[in-house]
Amino acid sequence: MAENEELQEMGEGETRQKILVADDEASIRRILETRLKMVGYDVVVAEDGEEAVEVFNKTNPDLVVLDVMMPKMDGYGVTREIRRTSDVPIIILTALGDVSERITGLELGADDYVIKPFSPKELEARVKAVLRRTISKDVIIPTSSSNGAPAAGGKGSKNIITTGCIKIDTARRQVFRKNERIRLTGMEFSLLELLVNNSGQAYSRNEILQHVWSYPADHRIDTRVVDVHISRLRSKLETDPTNPELILTARGIGYMFQRIN
């Protein structure tokens, strides 16, 4: 019954979202392929890092589930290759207790992680949450300039938030500095959107995990996921990431965006 509801939520007749599962363990590939297909996704698989990059380039998936430890090219190398050209969401599979693996993967551009051993339902929930938060809204803004950057002011610019030289287009989920686009992953934009839409309000790491990653309040997860994403955002948005002026640390609480009047 739940699976039927899931399929209905995705929409009958709509194009099915495609997921690349890359893992050198055949049993994990088989289980994930079966389960993800059952809940309405198309699935392509790869058994090593080199094949993962090749399949990614050929199939253009909507999300990648990526094991860290794979032959020929590890998950870090695959993440680097994908991030050269794409902001597609990446969920890494990592060993229990190996915090350094998780942090490294996130620093390279992964959006979330799932710890092995895991239940297929847990991964399904993470896939659904990440896809929901990272889907781009392909809205054409009539006031856009010829180079794709949002025009300042004027009618139709209500979706544009400007602070200093940074412009945030919430309709198209894009960010610009002086009309030059800054590439953000979907989760990076969702995090920025939460803070900007509530500028001047401090959020704890757990609150951010609930709002952006859709983790339940009682779910235990390393809150450094938030710290790594904040660091990535600062490196892209701040003039001096070591002395941030936009994304501020709220001591004893978490993070906040500077107040926008």
Give descriptors for this structure.
disordered N terminus; Rossmann fold; alpha/beta; Arc Repressor Mutant, subunit A; five-stranded parallel β-sheet; four-stranded antiparallel β-sheet; 2 domains; 261 residues
Give an account of the 3D structure.
It is a single chain. It is built from nine helices and twelve strands. With 261 residues, the chain is an alpha/beta fold. It folds into two domains: 2-134, 3-Layer(aba) Sandwich (Rossmann fold); 184-257, Arc Repressor Mutant, subunit A (Orthogonal Bundle). Strands 2-1-3-4-5 form a five-stranded parallel beta sheet, sandwiched between helices. Strands 6-7-8-9 form a four-stranded antiparallel beta sheet, with no helix packed on it. α5 links the parallel β4 (90-95) and β5 (112-116).
- Say what the CATH topology of the largest domain is: Rossmann fold
- Averaged pLDDT: 84
Mass-distribution shape: globular
Report the structural category. Answer: alpha/beta
Question: What are the SSEs and their pairings?
Answer:
Elements lengths: L1 H9 L7 E5 L3 H13 L3 E5 L2 H11 L3 E5 L7 H11 L4 E6 L3 H10 L3 E5 L3 H15 L25 E4 L2 E4 L4 E4 L2 E3 L3 H12 L5 E2 H8 L11 H14 L9 E4 L3 E4 L4
Parallel strand pairs: 1-2, 1-3, 3-4, 4-5
Antiparallel strand pairs: 6-7, 7-8, 8-9, 10-12, 11-12
Quick structural overview:
With 261 residues, the protein is of the alpha/beta class.
